[in-house]
Amino acid sequence: MSLTLSILLGVLLDRLFGEVPRWHPLVGFGRCAGWLEKRLNTDSILRGALGWALLVLPPVLLAALASRLPAGWIVDGIALYFALGARALSEHGQDVSMALQHGDMEEARRRVGYLVSRETTQMDEEQVARATVESLLENGNDAIFGALFWCALAGAPGVILYRLANTLDAMWGYRNARFERFGKVAARIDDLLNLIPARLCALSYALLGHTHTALASWRAQAGSWSSPNAGPVMAAGAGSLGLQLGGAAIYEGVREARPTLGSGRPANSADIPRALCLIARSLWLWLLVIGFGDALVTLY
């Protein structure tokens, strides 16, 4: 039952303490990634692959060695804690929700800016609510379920591989002149690592809401989304909540016509707590499935 103990330890630490306020390992990793990118980036795919390997493989190897210690399950749990963002995601969503409830649109726009990369200064209430729900659903996979999946599959090495790869994708995985080639490996590896957990996350969303609509939205709409993993997660989540998400948004001054996700009415401020509740219920479902599966393995 060491797997269950590791998972519970990581989730409990995240619940109690949230993100480490100072000296978070990912902050130091991000600085190293920024420093290395400036020295390696010559618009080369091979240099991008080299940078990825230099940054990710040594920590994964150290984690593999540490997880073999007698109390390796504690190492796995602590690694999961540093990779999880369940409490932080919930707090960000609640901050936007509270600002909307108090009619403070300036604060709501500022708070949603912490969650999304699109421009927020001219958003109305529906746009703020829609952007928040979209981000919560998508980041439910990136900040919670992807980390849980890789911890359950491979312990500390798996969860560290996942989180560092996800961080490099967030830093390097852009389709622009600077990162189109250098960041290609980082983007593709992140897509690969999320292939299974994103679909399990989408299935969890679907099972815990309007299941038929969620599955139909997933099947019909996910392929039109730009990200192969965010598409299923967001389409299933929108359908599960009975909402219509997606649509136009402004990025760097350019209006982008994005596909529609889900089915139903537009989002409003009351849907932010609903999205957080769906993510929380999905987390409980994952914990139950992991615990049950671990018990079966132990018995047989």
TrEMBL record:
Listed pathway(s): Cofactor biosynthesis; adenosylcobalamin biosynthesis
Bilayer disposition of the protein: Multi-pass membrane protein
One Pfam family this sequence matches: CobD_Cbib
Compartmental location: Cell membrane
Transmembrane segments: 45-66, 143-165, 275-297
UniProt keyword terms in alphabetical order: Cell membrane, Cobalamin biosynthesis, Membrane, Transmembrane, Transmembrane helix
Top-level taxon in the UniProt lineage: Bacteria
Family note: Belongs to the CobD/CbiB family.
Function: Converts cobyric acid to cobinamide by the addition of aminopropanol on the F carboxylic group.
PANTHER family in UniProt: COBALAMIN BIOSYNTHESIS PROTEIN CBIB
Protein name per Swiss-Prot or TrEMBL: Cobalamin biosynthesis protein CobD
Gene: cbiB
